[in-house]
Design goal:
The complex is a heterodimer of chains A (464) and B (165). In chain A, helix 1 packs antiparallel against helix 5, helix 4 packs across helix 5 and helix 6 packs antiparallel against helix 8. With 464 residues, chain A is α+β, with helices and mostly antiparallel strands. Chain A has four domains: 106 residues, no CATH class; 95 residues; 116 residues, OB fold (Dihydrolipoamide Acetyltransferase, E2P) (Beta Barrel); 90 residues, no CATH class. Chain A is globular, with a radius of gyration of 23 Å. In chain A, strands 8, 9, 10, 11, 12, 13 and 14 form a seven-stranded mixed sheet that branches. Chain A contains 14 helices and 14 strands. Chain B has 165 residues and is of the alpha+beta class. Chain B has one domain. In chain B, a hairpin with a 4-residue loop joins strand 3 and strand 4. Classes of the chains: A alpha+beta (464), B alpha+beta (165). The interface between A and B is large, with 104 and 61 residues. The structure holds zinc ion.
C-alpha cells in the first residue's frame, strides 16, 4: 500500500522515477541478442556477431562464462545446437533476472515491504521426449529468426503443443507455446510485417526454452490453513486459455502473507469477453470470491514458496464479504511478500499490489506527487470486467498492480471514482458470475451461446 | 519521469493479435486464418449431422468446399463461383477478424468500405476438407481439456483482451 502520508508517497515516486544503476547497460546487451534472434542465427552479420561477443564478454568471470563464450563462438562459426541455445537463453534470463531484482528491490524498499527469501526446491519429474519436440521447434525459430518465420514454420509447433496439452503436468509449457505459436501464425509471413514485437518474442522464446529442459524445478508447495482476503482479480487470456488470478492476503495465525491463487481453463478464440468466465464454471467458490469479495477459509491448501496458493474447491469454504479497499488499507502494508522463483525473475513478471489514493487522475495517468505521473496500463483493462478507461480516469482511489514494461505503470484491479457526481466502485472480477449491468449482461448472453454451440458441435462430431 | 510510451519493439506485453470480436457461431462455428488459407466449417441448413468444410487460399483465392463426409459441395460444383458456404465463411471471418486482417491475409485488394468477397479473384483449388476438418476437431478438443489450478507464470505476458474499440 502507498502510505497515505506525504513521505511514503514521495518515496514511491522517487523509486518509480529513478532507474536502477546498470539497467540501461543490461538492456543494451539484451537488445543485442534480441536483434540477432530477430534476423536469425543463420544470418549473423558483423554487427550482430559483435553484439553476441559483447554478451559473452559481459559474462566473463561469472559462473556462466565458459558456456556462454563457447556457445557464442560455435554459433558464430555456424553450429547451432540445443546446448548452445540454452546457454544463450540462460544468459538472457540472467540479465533480465538482475534487472528484475533491481526494479523490485527499489519498489519494495519504497513501500517498506518485507519479502521472503527463496527456499530451494527439488526438480520435477522429466518429460523427456515431449520436450525434445518443443526444443526442436524453438531451435528452428532461432535459426530462421522472427523475420524468417513463414506459415509453415509458425504451424510446425502444432504437434508438440497437442502432445504437451495431453499431459496435465506439461500445461505450463503447452499454454506458453500455444500462445506464442498463435501469434507467429497470425503474423506470418513475418517478413512483411511493419513492426516486430522483438522483446516480447525473445521473452517467450527464452521462457519456452527454459521450460523445455529436463530437471526444471518443482513447485515445492506446503500446506497452509487460514483465511483468504481478496485484494483484486487479474485476468489473462490468449486464444486458447483464460485465467483468473486473484491477488489476496492469507492470514495464518499471526502471519499475513501476500499470495496469488489462480484458475485457468482451455478455450477457443471465439469465446472471449465476459462469457469467458463460463469456462470456469467448475470453480463456484472462486467465482463467489471474485464476484462478491467473499473471504474464503482454506484448509491444508498448498502454498508454493513463490506465493502461489494452489486453488482447491474441496479445501475452500466461503465466508463473509470483505471490502478489498479496506483489506488493502488495513492489512496490506504489514503482509509478507513472497519470494520470486529464480527462473521467473523477469521485469514483465513484476505485479506488486498497491493501493493508491489521493492522486490527481488524468488521461496521462495518476499524478502521485513528487513530479511523478504514474502511467495507467489501459491495455490491461479487460473487456471481461466493469472497469473502463473512463472510470479509471475519473478515479480517486485505485487498487492495482505495479508493473514494469520499459517504464513503471499501474494496472487497475479496482477503482473508486466520482462519475456524474456519484460515488462508484468497480472491480475487475465483479462479473465472475455474469455482468450486473443490463447492456453487458445482454451481450454476454448472446456471446455465451458460442460456448453452447461449440459444445453441441463437439458432442456430435468428436465422439464419432 | 516521462509519460511517453515505450517503443512497441521494447515491450514484453506488446499486443500482437487484435482481440477477436464476438459473433454468433450457429451458422459458421469455426473460422481460422491458417496454413495460407482462410478456412472453416459451415453448418448445413438442412442436416444437423452435416457440416461443410470450406476454404479460400491466400494469393490465388482458390476455393474448395466439401461435406465432412468428403462429398463435393453442389453449389461450388468444381467451379470458381463461391457457393453460399464460402460466402458465409468470408462474411463471418470479416466479423471475427475485421475486414482489414482478412484482406491482408488473403492478399485481396479491398476498396474502401468494400467487402472481401467482392475483392476475390477466385479460382478452383484442391480439396482440403480433411486438413480443415481435423483442425476443427482439434479446436473443439480444447473445450474438453481439464481446467488447471497450477501456476502459469507466463500468462503475465498475456493480459485478457480489452474491449474492441
Ligand atoms: Zn459449399
Amino acid at each position: 500500500m502507498v502510505p497515505r502520508g506525504r513521505g511514503g508517497a514521495l518515496m514511491l515516486a522517487d523509486a518509480l522515477h529513478a532507474a536502477p544503476d546498470g539497467l540501461a547497460e543490461t538492456f543494451t546487451l539484451v537488445e543485442g541478442l534480441d536483434d540477432a534472434l530477430t534476423h536469425g542465427l543463420a544470418r549473423l552479420d558483423e554487427e550482430r556477431a559483435g553484439a553476441l561477443e559483447d554478451l559473452a564478454a559481459a559474462f566473463s568471470g561469472s559462473p556462466l562464462a565458459d558456456r556462454v563464450a563457447d556457445s557464442v563462438g560455435k554459433i558464430l562459426a555456424g553450429t547451432v545446437t540445443d546446448e548452445h541455445l540454452i546457454a544463450l537463453a540462460g544468459a538472457r534470463a540472467a540479465l533480465l533476472g538482475a534487472a528484475h531484482d533491481a526494479l523490485l528491490i527499489s519498489v519494495d524498499t519504497a513501500l517498506g515491504r518485507t519479502r521472503a527469501g527463496w527456499t530451494a526446491v527439488p526438480a520435477a519429474a522429466d518429460a523427456g521426449h515431449l520436450l525434445a519436440g518443443s526444443r526442436s521447434w524453438l531451435r528452428e525459430l532461432a535459426i530462421a529468426g522472427w523475420r524468417g518465420v513463414d506459415h509453415e514454420l509458425a504451424a510446425a509447433a502444432a504437434q508438440s503443443v497437442q502432445a504437451l496439452l495431453a499431459d496435465p503436468a506439461q500445461r505450463r509449457l503447452a499454454v506458453l507455446l500455444d500462445g506464442f505459436a498463435g501469434e507467429l501464425r497470425a503474423a506470418a509471413p513475418v517478413a512483411t510485417l511493419d513492426r516486430v514485437p522483438v522483446r516480447r518474442w525473445a521473452d517467450l522464446w527464452t521462457r519456452g526454452l527454459l521450460l523445455s529442459q529436463d530437471g526444471y524445478p518443482a513447485s515445492g508447495a506446503v500446506p497452509v490453513t487460514g483465511r483468504l482476503l481478496l485484494l483484486g482479480v487479474d485476468l489473462h487470456e490468449h486464444p486458447t486459455v483464460f485465467q483468473a488470478q486473484a491477488h489476496a492476503l492469507v492470514e495464518t495465525g499471526d502471519e499475513v502473507r501476500l499470495v496469488r491463487t489462480s484458475v485457468a481453463a482451455a478455450k477457443v478464440d471465439t469465446i472471449t469477453g465476459p462469457s469467458a468466465w463460463r469456462m470456469l464454471a467448475g470453480f463456484p467458490i472462486f467465482r463467489l470470491m471474485a464476484a462478491g469479495h467473499r473471504t474464503v477459509d482454506v484448509e491444508d491448501a498448498l502454498l508454493t514458496p513463490a506465493g502461489d496458493l494452489i486453488w482447491d474447491e474441496s479445501r475452500a469454504t466461503p465466508g463473509e464479504a470483505a471490502d478489498p479497499f479496506t483489506t488493502a488499507r488495513v492489512r496490506l502494508a504489514g503482509a509478507t511478500l513472497p519470494a520470486v522463483a529464480p527462473l521467473d525473475r523477469h521485469p514483465a513478471a513484476v505485479a506488486t499490489p498497491v493501493l493508491l489514493e489521493g492522486y490527481a487522475a488524468s488521461e496521462a495517468g495518476f499524478d502521485i506527487g513528487g513530479g511523478v505521473v504514474l502511467a495507467v496500463d489501459h491495455d490491461r483493462v479487460p473487456a471481461a470486467g466493469p472497469l473502463t478507461p473512463a472510470i479509471v480516469d475519473a478515479s480517486h482511489a485505485c487498487l492495482g498492480l505495479l508493473r514494469w514494461d520499459g517504464r513503471w505503470s499501474v494496472q487497475p484491479l479496482a477503482v473508486q471514482a466520482i462519475v456524474k457526481k456519484k460515488q462508484v466502485t468497480a472491480h475487475v472480477g465483479e462479473w465472475a458470475n455474469g455482468p450486473a449491468e443490463a447492456k453487458a449482461a445482454k451481450a454476454e448472453a448472446v456471446a455465451g451461446t458460442a460456448v453452447d454451440v461449440l459444445r453441441e458441435r463437439a458432442g456430435r462430431l468428436l465422439r464419432k | 519521469m516521462t509519460t511517453d510510451g515505450v517503443a512497441y519493439e521494447r515491450r514484453s506485453a506488446a499486443p500482437v493479435v487484435a482481440p477477436t470480436r464476438p459473433r454468433k457461431l450457429a451458422k459458421v462455428p469455426f473460422v481460422e486464418l491458417a496454413e495460407g488459407r482462410l478456412q472453416g466449417v459451415v453448418s448445413s441448413g438442412s442436416d444437423i449431422e452435416r457440416v461443410y468444410v470450406s476454404s479460400v487460399t491466400a494469393g490465388e483465392h482458390g476455393l474448395s468446399c466439401n461435406t465432412n463426409n468428403n462429398r463435393p459441395c453442389g453449389g461450388l460444383s468444381g467451379g470458381s463461383w463461391a457457393c453460399k458456404h464460402i460466402q458465409a465463411l468470408v462474411a463471418e471471418a470479416e466479423l471475427q477478424y475485421g475486414t482489414e486482417r482478412v484482406a491482408r491475409y488473403l492478399k485481396a485488394e479491398v476498396a474502401d468500405g468494400g467487402s472481401v468477397m467482392s475483392a476475390l479473384r477466385t479460382t478452383s483449388a484442391p480439396n482440403r476438407a480433411a486438413e480443415v476438418f481435423s483442425s476443427f476437431l482439434r479446436h473443439l478438443a480444447y473445450l474438453e481439456l481439464p481446467a488447471s489450478t497450477d501456476p502459469l507464470p507466463e500468462l503475465q505476458w498475456f493480459p485478457a483482451a480489452g474491449a474492441v474499440r
